[in-house]
Design brief:
Blueprint lengths: L3 E4 L3 H12 L4 E5 L10 E4 L1 H10 L2 H7 L19 E4 H9 L7 E3 L3 E6 L4 E5 L4 E4 L1 E4 L6 H5 L6 E13 L11 E5 L5 E6 L4 E9 L9 H14 L5 H4 L7 E7 L9 E2 L2 E3 L14 H9 L1 H6 L8
Parallel strand pairs: 1-2, 1-9, 2-5, 9-16
Antiparallel strand pairs: 3-4, 6-7, 7-8, 10-13, 10-14, 11-12, 12-13, 15-16
Helix pairs in contact: 1-4, 1-8, 2-8
């Protein structure tokens, strides 16, 4: 009953747990998947995200394994070189897990419901077990059960799907390390290609698609991606060096919240994609998930709040 329960062991959930631990508040992370998340390809991390990783003490391994982005015109901006890197998602999550105490994350746990109580909150598991706690942070993704409980409207489909993957070039990537290339074609195609390391390259492309489009086989995803790069007159080698099974497809969604929208109920709130799903246009989804996960612990640790 003296802990904060965090639902979801993704970027927002782990950063919130690490931040709570840093200020002396016990956190318990409940994750639906059976083990640490290894899915996902790569994400763009800008200086605001690295400031959070620095505060959590886990920035060093992420910086060491991912080169600075230098050929996107960033060095022409005041204050260069900027701490911007293309980061493997699994490397980021592994770094965040090191900042969370051993035994604090429990896998294979499904949440059925949450309730506010006079002293905090109560989490009901799918097994029927009930866990009382001081507060709940829902970091359970775009289709968040906790966001729905709080009355937040479902995320809005943006009319596009997002194909992405990480290509491996054993002989060396075709672009110099630290390169980020974005292409916006006259046909409405968006393509991004960036180097992660001397042998790895992250790429993505988007496709306008009806909301109810059927799921595709890995081979179909690969063919679709090649077609999009051809339309943009871009280099298709990255896709050819990505196994079809490693190409992911996701619907692009976002949620615009009006000023004054209530984001909590008692001691229950949400963070990350559960709160602010966004399109990849600015490359800030992962960065903001980190930033949103860090202020709450300092509020919970305030000496003005009884019990902390």
């Amino acid at each position: 009953e003296d802990a904060v329960i965090i639902v979801g062991a993704g970027i927002a959930g782990l950063s919130a747990a690490a931040s709570l631990h840093k200020v002396g508040v016990r956190a318990v992370v409940l994750e639906r998947e059976g083990g640490p998340r290894e899915e996902g390809s790569a994400i763009t991390f800008w200086p605001n995200a690295f400031r959070v990783l620095d505060a959590l003490g886990v920035a060093a391994p992420v910086r060491e394994s991912h080169p600075l982005v230098r050929s996107f015109g960033l060095d022409e901006c005041e204050g260069s070189p900027h701490d911007a890197r293309i980061v493997r998602r699994n490397s980021l999550l592994a770094a965040l897990r090191t900042a969370v105490p051993d035994g604090a994350t429990h896998y294979g746990v499904t949440i059925a419901d949450v309730h506010a109580t006079e002293t905090g909150a109560e989490v009901e598991l799918a097994t029927g077990e009930r866990l009382r706690c001081k507060a709940v942070v829902g970091a359970d993704g775009v289709k968040s059960r906790i966001a729905a409980k709080l009355g937040l409207k479902p995320a809005t489909y943006a009319g596009e799907v997002y194909y992405r993957g990480v290509a491996t070039f054993p002989e060396g990537v075709p672009e110099p390390p630290g390169t980020l290339r974005m292409i916006w074609s006259q046909r409405g195609v968006r393509v991004g290609i960036s180097t992660i390391s001397a042998t790895e390259c992250f790429w993505f492309t988007t496709l306008a698609c009806p909301e109810q489009a059927k799921m595709e086989t890995p081979e179909k995803r690969q063919a679709r991606s090649l077609l999009q790069l051809a339309k943009a007159r871009s280099q298709p080698d990255a896709i050819r060096h990505t196994p079809a099974d490693n190409i992911s497809r996701s619907r692009i969604v976002d949620r615009w919240l009006k000023n004054g929208t209530i984001l909590g109920q008692g001691c229950i709130t949400v963070a990350g994609d559960a709160l602010h799903p966004m399109t990849p246009s600015l490359g800030q989804g992962g960065c903001i998930a980190l930033e949103v996960g860090t202020p709450a612990p300092f509020c919970l640790a305030s000496p003005n709040r009884e019990g902390y």
